[in-house]
UniProtKB/TrEMBL annotation:
Belongs to the beta-eliminating lyase family. The lineage of its organism: Bacteria, Pseudomonadati, Spirochaetota, Spirochaetia, Spirochaetales. This is Tyrosine phenol-lyase. The modification N6-(pyridoxal phosphate)lysine is found at residue 263. It catalyses: L-tyrosine + H2O = phenol + pyruvate + NH4(+). The keyword Lyase applies. It comes from the Bacteria. InterPro entries: ArAA_b-elim_lyase/Thr_aldolase, Beta-eliminating_lyase, PyrdxlP-dep_Trfase, PyrdxlP-dep_Trfase_major, PyrdxlP-dep_Trfase_small, Tyr_phenol_ly. Its EC number is 4.1.99.2. Residues 52-428 form the Aromatic amino acid beta-eliminating lyase/threonine aldolase domain. Its cofactor is pyridoxal 5'-phosphate. Keywords: Lyase, Pyridoxal phosphate.
Length: 463
């Protein structure tokens, strides 16, 4: 198969009812805007971006059914019918006993970390996510990465690169003792590893090991539907199962999950925590009223909850998710055809440029991925995001920079927003930059916030 043959990719399983015009500003204006933004793409104005691949978080296009749901929002303070519909949708699709709504994913992470971590306990995960680890550490947890080694090697093309290394898991339990492990946090898919999926076999094995020792497993379910697609496509025995069946089986191996509604639920805001344990659910409800809102809205409006429930049901439709994952793959294949270094295999929500190989003339302390993202914007108005040393932050104890093996620029594709032709424009710009990659310059911090610094940091050229 020729990976560039467009007929190999599914056409959009929708038609377009509303459009949002975009315009590209001149190169001089983009250079000025980037300098004013301190070479941090987070500080740019949306209107100055042509194709916005900063994130797939909350940037999704809702369907007509979701917009119709907005109109039937029940904004009662308590017991909204939209909450009851959302709750029953989550229980039906994921199989959990209890649901706690939150304003977005990190709201759920805050609650879970507060109720399930005792200071000094270990929390092990398949790599980490920025806000997830932040909440774990804020509650006194010690994060341990137990993802398979291959996940840290950007160029290595192996399936299910997001799997937990079972030996690392067993050794951790042996060395630290089950009672000193708060829980295992299993992300499906692994965002920072490049949107890499976890196999059902691995989920089952993690369940068996942890069950033996009485250790709980909570999933970061943010991209669980994309993960399910990879299982259907690549794991023995799942080709004839529906995405809905696969998603349901995945969560049967967990004790609960945090979910950002802004990703696979195809909405613009929202989230939830799902749990099986009655006692933890009781504790979660006590905390949700303090930080989010009543346990029947958790910071969301009735209309948002309705849109999320409808979006969740749409997300598990087989045609939708195949199109979604393959559109991302199309962009990745365009870049591979031009020998651009990216993380392989191509993940479920984004293509990650490997800035180490893209900018071999820059040291990691010179923020190659940050600078590459800035250059990409200045070249074509395409906005992307750094996922490397800046995102990794500093060790809270030593104050030293974390030095992640992966130094990447993430081109994240919003759901149902851009066409295949937009992907061509993005690829052309990346290829153009790669031809003059020596022109990508070193950066230095001029403002470094203490927490989650990548969001608001500012830089200047260091040469
Ligand atoms: C976005 C994201 C979160 C946090 O969710 P928010 O809704 O942004 O708070 C957690 N984990 C993963 C893997 C994510 O991608």
């Amino acid at each position: 198969m020729n990976p560039l043959d467009l007929s190999q990719y599914p056409a959009e399983p929708f038609k377009i009812k509303a459009v949002e015009p975009v315009a590209v500003i001149s190169k001089e204006m983009r250079e000025k805007a980037m300098a004013e933004a301190g070479y941090n793409t987070f500080n740019l104005r949306s209107e100055d971006c042509y194709i916005d691949l900063l994130t797939d978080s909350g940037t999704n296009a809702m369907s007509d059914q979701q917009w119709a749901g907005i109109m039937i929002g029940d904004e009662a303070y308590a017991g909204s019918r939209n909450w009851l519909y959302l709750e029953s949708t989550i229980k039906e699709l994921m199989g959990f006993a209890h649901v706690v709504p939150t304003h977005q994913g990190r709201g759920a992470e805050n609650i879970l970390s507060t109720i399930a971590i005792k200071p000094g306990q270990y929390v092990a995960g398949n790599m980490y996510f920025t806000t997830t680890r932040y909440h774990q550490e804020r509650n006194g947890g010690i994060f341990v990465d137990i993802i398979r080694d291959e996940a840290h090697d950007a160029g290595l093309n192996v399936p299910f690169k997001g799997n937990i290394d079972l030996k690392k898991l067993e050794n951790l339990i042996k060395e630290k003792g089950a009672e000193n492990i708060a829980y295992i946090c299993l992300a499906v898919t692994v965002n920072l590893a490049g949107g890499q999926p976890v196999s059902m076999e691995n989920m089952r094995a993690v369940r068996e090991i942890t069950k033996k020792h009485g250790v709980k497993v909570f999933y970061d379910a943010t991209r669980c539907v994309e993960n399910a697609y990879f299982i259907k496509e690549q794991e023995e025995g799942y080709q004839n199962k529906s995405i809905k069946e696969i998603v349901h089986e995945m969560f049967s191996y967990s004790d609960g999950a945090t979910m950002s509604g802004k990703k696979d639920c195809i909405t613009n805001i929202g989230g939830f925590l799902a749990l099986n344990d009655d006692e933890l659910f009781g504790k979660a409800k006590e905390i949700v009223v303090v930080f989010e809102g009543m346990p029947s809205y958790g910071g969301m409006t009735g209309r948002d909850m309705q849109a999320m429930a409808v979006g969740l049901r749409e997300s598990v439709q087989d045609e939708y998710i195949e199109y979604r994952v393959k559109q991302v793959r199309y962009l990745g294949n365009l870049l591979l055809a031009e020998k651009i270094p990216i993380i392989e295999p191509i993940g479920g929500h984004a293509v990650f440029l490997d800035a180490r190989r893209f900018c071999p003339h820059l040291k990691q302390e010179q923020f190659p991925a940050q600078s590459l993202a800035a250059s990409l914007y200045m070249d074509s108005g395409v906005r992307s995001m750094e996922r490397g040393i800046v995102s990794a932050g500093r060790d809270p104890k030593t104050g030293e920079n974390h030095m992640p093996k992966l130094e990447t620029v993430r081109l994240t594709i919003p759901r149902r927003v851009y066409t295949y032709k937009h992907m061509d424009v993005v690829a052309d710009s990346v290829v153009r930059l790669y031809k003059h990659k020596e022109d990508i310059r070193p950066l230095k911090f001029v403002y470094e916030p203490k927490q989650l610094r990548f969001f608001t940091a500012r830089f200047a050229y260091a040469d």
